[in-house]
Input
Amino acid sequence: MGVVFGVLGPVTAWDGSGDVIALKGPKHRAVLARLIVARGRVVPVGRLVDDLWIDPPVGAMGAVRTFVAALRRAVEPERPPRAPPRVLVTEGPGYALRVGSREVDAWRFEQVVTASRPAGELVASLDEALGWWRGPAYAEFADEGWARAERSRLAELRLRAVERLAEAKLDLGRAAEAVPDLDAHVAEHPWREDAWRLLALALYHTGRQRDALAVLRRARTLLAEQLGLDPGPALRRLEEDILRQADRPVLGEPDRPVLGEPDRPVLEEADRPVLEEADRPVLGEADRPVLREDAAARVWARATAAYDRAVASGARARLESTVGILRDLAVTGGGGLEAAREQRTAAIAAAEELGDAELTARVIGAYDVPAIWTRSDDPRQAAEVVAAAERTLTALPAQEHARARNVPTRGRDVLRARLLATVALESRGDRSGRGREAALEAERIARGLDDPGLLAFVLNGVYMQTFQRAGLAPERDEIGAELVGLAGRHGLVTFEVLGHLVRVQARSALGDFAGADRHAAAADELAARHELPLVSVFTQWYRALRLAASSEAAGEVNAEVDAAYQDAVARLDGAGMPGLESGLPALSRLCLRVRQGLPAQTDARTDWGPYEPWVRPLVSLARGRRSEALATLRRVPQPPRDLLFEAMWCLIARAAIAVDDRELMRRAHSELVPAAGELAGASSGLITLGPVSGYLDDLSTALDRA
Output
């Protein structure tokens, strides 16, 4: 064996004699680490520059080439002059590391952990492989974005190795030997339910039934107190088996009740009559849902266990399956949405590292979670997703190349449309025009294909880019109507809900609250039937808006309206949507004050979130600081082109009239004229500042003054 590279700890290299090779400075090791992460694929020089420096210096590309030259001399010291390198090669626009799986400790480790071997061989190989770890993987690059996904993957693989080793020892009857390692393992990683299961099982194997039960109860307490979760079905079944003082289980005997085996349901006596005699009312109706939930839990446990056994941990199918789970997770509630967001970029990064553009396109495009709010919950992550989608669009074969490679053009078109729709969705608020361009191109492709799911996803992107000027509620209403019809015909429930919510927004903006009411009710009904709890966040805010608009029409904004908005604000807690929540409570209060002719709230603790630039002049006026308001107003940026575009211009108009800034009054009038028939801010479906026409009249009157 020649040079061996190590990343299971600080990045290093050893020569054929096992001596450490001097790799010079941290940038040299960073280049080497980045190429190892790429697993033999080419990393362009420009990408290396971006990964090595936050603010690349002049001559950064030349510096990278210098680092590569030094690394080549270090890892191939006997290469003759002018002979082509064999380890760190130049290819196309960048560099690649060309070594076998045996030459990188992390790759070798993965092979050992995922291999199928007899228990005796597995114990020996895993014992050895766990000894290769010298610290956290890529230890000195823990904060680098390019290393994050690989570090997480290897850390998970290491934990799985510890658990597989314990399982193998249990198979061999060496339970007592497994206990100390598992005890340390759960102490360091207390959220791993399978580790608790194995520790309890090992204790039971050694005759320590009381200790096994204590471990399971400790796991139950920890999961409940720290995560708010109940133990999974495998832990529950193991505890029940131990409490029944079942015979000591022997792993691998299919005809006996193996304790804790995740894919074997334990059929309780109380369950049997219900499962076997469906027509006999053994349990009360109130108990039946619990039984159904338990049955669902057993099916889930069996299916996931079977998947885990059948699909190798490094299989590409796992990435696509993961994205499917994340897509479903995102609509389960605030916690699920946050978790899905956290894991989405990791899945994309893992796909990109495999170097398969079509796989990456599927991973990116499969996350077709409907989006209704026009401000991103995580702008940085959104930018990363857009960048990955753009890279993948470039990497996909062009039409003529696709034909030459016998790649079906329809499949390529579907991938392109999904990537473009992703760009459109994640570029919400974009002023460059790229988001709208991507949306329209995606729509052109999707309308030529018979794929309702694709078209629904693309229409979401088109909706997100329909804010290029004020007064576009009718256009968005048409998109919502098409979504409702399309999704309803094809059983696309989440997109049907999206269509109804889009129409709630549009009909509110147009003052058609009877129509908005119908769509809010339809959204709520679908959400209740299909367990979509986040929908009620938007419908509850809409009903506060509805009440406020009705009260204003009656000449009053009363305590009932205040209470409705307070309830709506409380509903945001735990919803997992910071892009919606940030600044919205304060903005809703301001809207009520403006419509009552009251000044803006002046409490210094008020959190205006992203709306602060357009609110600040009104706050200065409320404090009696006219010159400050004028100076602030003259620096106010163009409002984002989103659901609150008209509302922000109305706030600007109100302040401009107060300080007699005639130039800004003319700009506000010009921007708002297309929305003359709408209610300002009501296109959000959340708040309103009243009719735009009223602000236009006030602007005209002020501009007509001598």
Remarks:
- The two ends are 90 Å apart (CA to CA).
- The longest helix spans residues 145-171.
- The mean pLDDT is 85.
